[in-house]
From TrEMBL:
GO molecular function per UniProt: ATP binding; ATP hydrolysis activity
Alphabetized Pfam families for the sequence: AAA_5 (PF07728)
Annotated coiled-coil segments of the chain: none
Record Gene3D superfamilies: P-loop containing nucleotide triphosphate hydrolases
Protein name, UniProt field: MoxR-like ATPase
Membrane-crossing residue ranges in chain numbering: none
Domain AAA+ ATPase: 47-198
């Protein structure tokens, strides 16, 4: 681990947070698909550059963001993007409150403003699902200025030194739009692929230490076949999701692998042919 990462970790972990903020610190446990990705993402965070995670659904992008939060002991605020996302969802909104017997207008900070002021992690999930006209408000937050003029109050906010931005995209999915070049150019981008077989095995053995070895082997074999079919375009990416593999393995401990694969993987696919393909592949490994 690079010295600058260790030094930054020690400094950030030295901060104390009230209970409601500490509850927002993510759970670690991300397993990297290669020897460099984890350390490279941490390096980008330490030099205070926004991080963009690119990869198929279920490849571990959110778990990676949560693990950064856990590594530095920083609360994380998550924004889930959609076409309905607007500036108020990001920045905050005005509301009417009673104060000392009077009715006054107050401003409730949104996740962007809160993370900037408090030095927390801001995680923007599926950023390419948002309408392009919504996101330019973040340009000054994401570049060297690290500041924001609140459009609702006029307040000028300069980011806390520990403020960290991580965004994630699933490229080429229905409902997504290409990221604006001016926005994309403000990030350091990392590809987050599916785990290889050895990493998947280490993950399952860590998550389910008491599971029979035969079950782990069976689920890994099914997973490898599903990844091959997804790469060839015969299955949707979500069929090869790490998240689905974990869910199926946990379920298989109680009801057996065939029904577990059906419920945790196959039934989430829209296409009937793909659902049948998943079950056919699983049947070749289930004895």
């Amino acid at each position: 681990m690079l010295a600058i990462i260790e030094e930054e970790r020690k400094e950030r972990n030295g901060r104390d947070y009230p209970a409601e903020e500490a509850a927002l610190i993510g759970q670690g446990g991300y397993v990297a698909p290669d020897e460099h990705l984890w350390e490279d993402v941490l390096t980008a965070v330490v030099i205070r550059r926004p991080v963009l995670l690119k990869g198929p659904a279920g490849s571990g992008k959110t778990k990676l963001a949560e693990s950064v939060s856990a590594f530095f002991g920083q609360p994380m605020h998550q924004v889930n993007c959609s076409v309905d996302l607007d500036a108020e969802s990001l920045i905050g909104f005005k509301t009417i409150i009673r104060q000392d017997g009077d009715t006054v207008i107050d401003f409730v900070d949104g996740p962007v403003v809160t993370a900037m002021k408090e030095g927390h992690v801001l995680y923007i999930d599926e950023i390419n699902m948002a309408k392009p006209e919504t996101l330019p408000i973040l340009h000054s937050v994401l570049d060297y200025r690290r500041m924001l003029t609140n459009p609702f109050t006029g307040e000028v906010i300069h980011a806390h030194p520990d403020f960290t931005v991580i965004a994630a995209i699933n490229e080429g999915y229905v409902g997504t739009v290409p990221m604006n070049e001016a926005l994309k150019n403000r990030f350091i981008a990392f590809q987050v692929p599916y785990l290889g077989q050895e990493q998947s095995k280490a993950l399952l053995e860590r998550e389910f230490p008491d599971a029979p070895r035969t079950l782990i082997t069976t689920m890994l074999s099914i997973s490898e076949d599903l990844k091959d079919q997804a790469k060839s375009g015969l299955l949707a990416d979500e069929a090869a999701s790490i998240r689905s593999l974990i869910d199926a393995t946990e379920l298989a401990l109680h009801i057996g692998p065939e029904r577990a694969v059906r419920y945790a993987i196959a039934e989430k696919l829209e296409d009937a042919g793909e659902r049948q393909l998943v079950m056919d592949l699983a049947a070749t490994w289930i004895r």
